[in-house]
């Protein structure tokens, strides 16, 4: 009996996984490329990085010939509760798709994202799916479903009358893609969303007030400033959907941490962003995808909206704005997150800067000190891609290994 009890105790005891030695052709550490480096992982952390490392006794060795090992990439603007608009229009997703259907589909999107090498996502609004992002995040954390680490914004906040779906009998209440609120109640809504699980607060600084109209500012300066103060007091970052110069200006002066889109921004707004340390998520891929859904084949001349995105991106880079890598994925297919990186490179951003934006840059902008770089003590969130993305950025689409928290993703 004593021997049986000992055997059972040994079976019940956790068995430490052997260290893993990763030997690629080169390592991009989040800032620079290092040929001949290796990385040793023990448990969920990176424990050693560099050339000529001694292999620990009992370690498993994983050779990655010809591959580049990078930090797990960070998607800066995702909507896991959406799927491509050429499959189902946004209005139909918000109004007609059951919450359970949207949530189950999101689990598939989460796995596709992880397998594409994106081990963290900043998910910026459920678009009518309530707090389903909080539940999805918890399911991933508890190991119920596989997926990336999530930073969630829950419902997002819009000014009354300034969001959709639209086109119904005036006065008829229909489900909206975000929470509509104004004035002092905006601060209450910020706190409510944080209490319900929001890691970040998203505000819509501008939007289209009516069908066919251009975007215009929504919240007043005072409203936005109060909302940002409430979120920051709770230790949460704030990002703003903003494409117009005035919407951007109000958001920047309110103290937001990042601007999403910035499509019509001028040199003045980008200068102000740089001075105040506000990051830009340009979402080039969303505009590109929508233009293609409308019939553009990708050749020149590009549609005006695509040209506007490219122009604002160039202005932001010239101003020295911190650049986030985030494509508004969900407008296009999850798992194709690297599409934004390819477009950033095509728009003139050096490939190593694009790689930095998707790793160490996003980690720094989002306050994620435990990831985004390859260094001892950080999370072993890693991705290996075939070839050299510093020479050809499209290499990031050819993923040969993904590791999250020291565990290889199958």
Describe the structure.
There is one protein chain. The protein has helices at 2-12, 90-96, 99-115, 132-141, 184-195, 221-233, 245-254, 267-276, 284-293, 304-319, 339-346, 351-365, and strands at 20-28, 33-35, 37-42, 45-51, 60-71, 73-78, 118-123, 149-152, 157-158, 179-180, 200-204, 206-208, 215-217, 237-242, 258-261, 279-281, 382-386, 399-404, 407-408. The protein has 410 residues and is of the alpha/beta class. It has two domains: 16-71 and 374-408, Urease, subunit C, domain 1 (Roll); 73-337, Metal-dependent hydrolases (TIM Barrel), CATH 3.20.20.140. The strands form five sheets. Strands 1, 2, 3, 4, 5, 17, 18 and 19 form an eight-stranded mixed beta sheet that branches. It has a four-stranded parallel beta sheet with strand order 11-14-15-16. The longest helix has 17 residues, at 99-115.
């Amino acid at each position: 009996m004593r021997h049986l009890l000992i055997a059972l105790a040994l079976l019940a005891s956790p068995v430490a996984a052997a260290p893993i030695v990763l030997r690629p052709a080169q390592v991009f550490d989040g800032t620079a490329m290092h040929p001949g480096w290796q990385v040793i992982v023990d448990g969920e952390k990176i424990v050693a990085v560099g050339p000529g490392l001694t292999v620990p006794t009992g370690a498993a060795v994983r050779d990655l010939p010809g591959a580049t090992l990078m930090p797990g990439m960070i998607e800066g603007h995702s909507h896991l509760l959406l799927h491509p608009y050429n499959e189902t229009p946004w209005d139909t997703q918000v109004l007609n798709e059951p919450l359970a259907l949207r949530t189950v589909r999101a689990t598939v999107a989460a796995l596709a994202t992880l397998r594409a090498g994106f081990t963290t996502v900043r998910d910026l609004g459920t678009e009518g799916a309530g707090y389903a992002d909080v539940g999805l995040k918890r399911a991933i954390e508890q190991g119920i479903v596989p997926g990336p680490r999530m930073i969630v914004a829950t419902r997002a906040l819009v000014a009354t009358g300034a969001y959709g779906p639209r086109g119904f009998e005036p006065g008829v209440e229909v489900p909206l893609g975000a929470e509509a609120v104004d004035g002092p109640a905006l601060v209450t809504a910020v706190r409510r969303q944080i209490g319900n699980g929001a890691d970040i607060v998203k505000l819509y600084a501008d939007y289209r007030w009516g069908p066919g109209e251009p975007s215009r500012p929504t919240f007043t300066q005072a409203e936005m400033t109060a909302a940002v103060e409430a979120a920051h007091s709770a230790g949460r970052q704030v990002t703003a959907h903003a494409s117009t110069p005035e919407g951007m200006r109000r958001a920047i002066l309110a103290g937001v941490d990042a601007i999403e889109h910035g499509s019509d921004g001028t040199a003045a707004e980008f200068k102000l962003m740089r001075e105040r340390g506000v990051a830009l998520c340009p979402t080039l891929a969303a505009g590109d995808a929508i233009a293609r859904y409308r019939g553009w084949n990708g050749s020149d001349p590009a549609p005006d909206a695509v040209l506007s995105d490219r122009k604002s991106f160039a202005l932001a880079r010239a101003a020295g704005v911190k650049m986030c890598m985030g494509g508004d994925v969900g407008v296009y297919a999850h798992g194709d997150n690297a599409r934004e990186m390819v477009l950033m490179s095509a728009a003139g951003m050096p490939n190593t800067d694009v790689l930095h934006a998707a790793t160490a840059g996003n980690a720094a902008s989002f306050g994620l000190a435990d990831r985004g770089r390859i260094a001892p003590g950080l999370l072993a969130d890693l991705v290996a891609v075939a070839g050299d993305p510093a020479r050809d950025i499209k290499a990031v689409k050819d993923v040969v290994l993904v590791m999250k928290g020291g565990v290889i993703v199958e």
